[in-house]
Amino acid sequence: MGVCRLFGLSAGSEPVTATFWLLQAPDSLEAQSHRDPDGTGLGYFDTDGTPHIDKQALAAYGDRAFAEEARTIASATFVAHIRFASTGALESRNTHPFEQHGRLFAHNGVIQGLPALERQVGTDMSLVGGDTDSERFFALISAETERNGGDVGAGIATAARWVAANLPVYAINLVLVTGSDLWALRYPDTHELHVLEREPGTALHHESSHGTAVHSEHGATRKTVVVASEMMDSDPAWRALESGELVHVSPDLTVSSKLVITEAPAHLLRLEDLDPHARASQSVHQKG
Asked: What is the residue range of 31's domain?
């Protein structure tokens, strides 16, 4: 079985490619897509801040466009998602990431009680074009961000606390990026989410036990920050986020974090509470 995978990268103010993480790393997004076959999406920004999303209801390993873009696209921030569907048909409009107000968003988890969520979103439901709980949660974040004067971190925290207090929740792990900033939230501790601050001088390199090696030119002279559902290589600097921890990566690559939800979900769903399709989407794949 599989579970949706999240990936986010920030390189500060200067665009980089993400080839290593998307295609070459020991547990790259392409490799993960063999376990999560329902959709692939890559979000990034032009140098003028214009957002772009390329997504298909296809696995990354079968998507030639994903491979080509992963090799050539340069952006200061990225968000990528490998989907194992829990809510919504296998269509491009239900494939992550989603775009609202120039922000890009991907989510891993299950939120139930969608009619109540839609009522809380209110008029910002006009931003939603698909069937998923994820896109509706994003719309709530957008609404709360506006109510907090454009503060995205406050919008995420407020929306997540409302969902945790009012709706049945299995997980709401997320990555949200603008052309300059990245945010990531893990809640609760159902699924893992990791952050890696790769300092300058650390090349993106991995050598397997079979003697094959992969290498990227980026990272040797540039700091980058990566967020991912699982540790994608053997770097010892990977750190697991705590439940309720919101990480923010600023344009100068300063990484800050705080616990924005300290209470357990009021209605925590167990795996056995989910319908068979959602249960399959959230079952953690065991390697080996």
From this structure: 5-282
